[in-house]
Fold:
Amino acid sequence: MPEISLNVNGRAVKGEAGGNMLLADFLRQTLGLTGTHIGCDTSQCGACVVHMNGNSVKSCTVLASQADGAKVVTIEGLSSGMDLHPVQAAFREAHGLQCGFCTPGMIMSAADLLSKNANPTEPEIRTWLKGNICRCTGYHNIVKAVQSAAAQMSTRAVAAE
Amino acid sequence: MYSFDYVRPSSVAEAVQALAGKEATLIAGGHTLIPTLKQRLAKPRLLVDLGNIAELKGIRREGNRDGDFIVIGATTTHAEIAASSDVRSAIPALALLAGGIGDPQVRYRGTVGGSVANNDPAADYPAAVLGLGASVVTNKRQIEADSFFIGLFSTALQPGEIITAIRFPVPVRAGYAKFEQRASRFCLVSVFAAQKKGGMFSAGDVRVAVSGTGKTGVFRVPEMEQALKANFAPQAVTGIKVSASGLTGDMHGSAEYRAALVTVMAERAVAAAA
Amino acid sequence: MTVQGIGAAVKRREDFRFIKGVGKYTDDINLPHQLYCYILRSPVAHAKIRSVNTDAAKAAPGVAAVFTGADIDASGVGGIPCGWLVTDVHGGPMKEPKHPILASGKVRHVGDPVAAVLAESFNQAKDAAELIQLDLEELPAVVDMKSALSASRTGAGTLVHDEAPDNLCFEWELGDKAATEAAFARAAHVTKIDLINNRLVPNAMEPRVAIGHYEMGTDDHTLYTTSQNPHVIRLLMGAFVLGIPEHKLRVYAPDVGGGFGSKIYHYAEEAFVTWASKRVGRPVKWTSERGEAFLSDAHGRDHVTHAEMAFDADGRAIGLKCQTLANMGAYLSTFAPCIPTWLHGTLLAGQYTTPAIHCNVKAVFTNTVPVDAYRGAGRPEATYILERLMSKAARELGKDQAELRRMNFIQPNQFPYQTPVAVVYDTGDYETTLNKALEISDYANFEGRRAAAQAKGKLRGIGVASYIEACGIAPSSLVGALGARAGLYEAATVRVNPTGSVTVLTGSHSHGQGHETTFAQVVASKLGIANEQVEIVHGDTDKVPFGMGTYGSRSIAVGGAALVNALDKVIEKGRKIAAHLLEASAEDITFENGAYTVKGTDKTKAFGEIALTAYVPHKYPIETLEPGLEETSFYDPKNFTYPAGTYICEVEIDPKTGFTEIVSFVAADDFGNIINPMIVEGQVHGGIAQGIGQAMLENAVYDENGQLLTGSYMDYCMPRADDVPSLQVHTVAGTPCTHNPLGVKGCGEAGAIGAPPAVINAIVDALRDYGVDHIDMPATPEKVWRAINAGATRMAAE
Structure:
């Protein structure tokens, strides 16, 4: 069985990965990182979104072998310990989640958006989140959470200057 | 998924060699292939990943006596094309098209070469390739758009032939308009309209290509091209209807509806042309 | 210490584990030595099973066992039971054919489970399933309800079940037919409509999962499952399917990723993995793929209705009649028969004084996935009928759609109000929510916005819908008389720990609703202790005494009431302990802000001291009072609750493509008292998005052979972030429910009930210049475009 090596959440990891193993399964089963969820089989729901080499990707549509050598960040690696990334904090503050199943993918996608576009408009947020389906919230508070995270992060950035 | 082996060569030559093995399939972004494998609709023995081949990546503008081109390496992603300053300045409609494919995660992984090679009738790129009169460059030859797209999911590519780049001629102006199939967010109908650069004494040709709805995939609309050559303005195509008989129809849109959308999207593509 | 009690917008405590990615959903559970189960499902809608040959599959790599319906039948296991018996209009019971765990004799829908492979890995199980030789003799498929009902007359004679002639499960009626006909006979105007309430697939984002684990040493069974009501599953599966007594069967539903009704029911896979684990002596795990979910999760809605409403010369509604065909699918899912009947017909009065109502429902078997409750369940269908009729009538009568509703409203002084369709509304104030919605939506200035839209080539329309729903399901004696095979009370235990923290065990189940937060608020309010001192435990039959679960917007109205009653018992026992400690009579002790005080004195004991005393009863009235401080209450509601409100939707349509954009959506709801306004608003947002989905995007489509054409997100259109607008949701101060201790009504389904008619009324209004008076859901761009074109053609001809 071929072995792959990659960096997941800042840690070098190795594991066996047959050609047909998905990155999502490698994360969930081999590494036990079950925060990454699988909600569909047609690459649309986005519950499985993680960051790979700085971009958000659907880990159910990336082969584990394709991630060989990559730097992957999952929801578990977005913040450490009891800390929260501003996007995570904003989702709680704005009640941007209900059942929580789509939430890790949604947060990873939103965090990627804000890393590329610090101050997105509401239509930009809604368009960006096309690849993440939520059945609970009607997206209203998700959009608010992303807006509030953007404001929070730009305040921090200003304060840091 | 059925089980298969996986290799990631670092040159086109190695990829060609790997592909010569039995039941091997190329994978680039994998955003069509992996879902297909998950549904067990394909059973390759080997996947040959083009993702690690430096010569297949990148965007450059090539101006020479033959003209002015944007050349995009086959494994360049939709996101890279959408963000490219070269593409945005030379062919903004192409950047817009790339930036509107699927969703951000699809655009980070999906590649122009993969999309063109797959020739999904509901994909975006075939409209741009045909609408701009681009050429598909392979490891063996250069294929003009008009002879590249043969039918649904089929192209002029031969076994063992790998797309290395797409050469898009820079037009005078071009526009793209898409009406999405709301569930999949693929094209229900999309139209790419371009006014090409002419010679010193001749006006450039106009090309209009439609994706999403042709029974045999992407197609041109000569009547619209004629009308737009005379007058490159939205109202020039308002009265031109394509026949529904050549169009697909399904629960997402009948052929008759799609035919009407072709005209509307053509108007909007022309109106948006820049 | 902070007490964030009833009415506070407390941030959710459950969020931390979800935003950190450390929630525990059923698929996150893996047991040592587990086998993976893959279920082979029927590829055709209707066929006789000639044979199922599993020899090659059994020999495939990694395969531990392969089972078919024959194995299940041989083991003497029962079918999946139905939880509700509807009595036919002719007096007999509904037809209730067996619903096998694995198909036996026939397959009856695409997706019907035929065989199950257990292997060391999921891929091996799936590989082996391809080796199963299924010899089927295909039969014609019954798909369309109207032709299903005429099977004998058309000579086709195809029956889903031999015991249901003409594929009729039952015919049911409610209301006074003669009085209704009399009303129509004297009507000044009659508005008629034909409607389709489109079939939906619930699509909770977490696919279903079931893990069976049998432990031979103790003869204990555990089922881990994605359920909204683990005790109901234990009851149905233990008692009716597998014959496992409750004390030997634990059902555990940990974090559950949404339900919307689809995770109420007892499913075949749950029974199968529980049964199979004992057979093979290893844990057995089944995880649904999304494509499989489309073919095996119960679907929702799917009604075809003709309805008429009679008005007098002033525009007062004097009669309503409707005939509905309701699709049951191939088998009766757990609560299927009650959805188009008791949860539908009883809501047909709506907010109006219509004195005579009659409704007839025929429930039909077809070769499709079973249909059951989906968010709203029967009430959206009733509301859609009524609210489409109202807006259509307003146009025909030349009246404003809001004003026609207003003049027909039940007035505040008429409560309690006996409707002509069995139920009694305890309270309500419909003008307040109507006025609020009109105000927020700036209804008065709509025509100006319409003209502005027209100037830019868009068609703008506005739609009003005033809904009512029956929640807080339900009084056991009432539902028992109506056919429920269970009680619909709820249970709660309040366990005060020695140091004063509180563990609540509730039979309600949270799968997104935030019970861990809201129930803690109720406890904090009642006991005057910090919210962090309260833990809410749910979902595990080994921990929680009993429960009927979460559906029908019942958690706070029924589960919350049980909690309050248990808290009252705790407070009363504490009062006796305090009286002893304070050397006063219990009648003289008050309990406020977490302290027992002797009236008129400063003699006081904190709740925590009382708790400690109860567990360290050194100074304690031990002769008259047991030690400990733990109380359980079972609460059986006295009536349904009746949340109500008005929704107003505004759309703009691109006439060239039919593309419709919702430019404004306003909700004004009366939910009675509110525990947590943030969570309530979130529930309404989600419901509205599902309602918009039904109205414009979602549709489960079968072809004539019974193949589901919309079996993935490529074809079944889920609402995405750019499909729904920013929502303006407002909860009015409202009319508290009069018969439960919290005065609450429930809010989970309102959005899904009120939104579809508001959206369709807006679209039809936008198309009024084209003479369009109805458009079926989902109002896709093509349907809208066709309506415009047909109208334009018609007008040109005139």
About this structure: Chain A has five helices and five strands. Residues 75 and 81 of chain A are 12 Å apart (CA to CA). Chain A has a mean pLDDT of 96. Chain A touches chain B through 29 residues (CB under 8 Å).
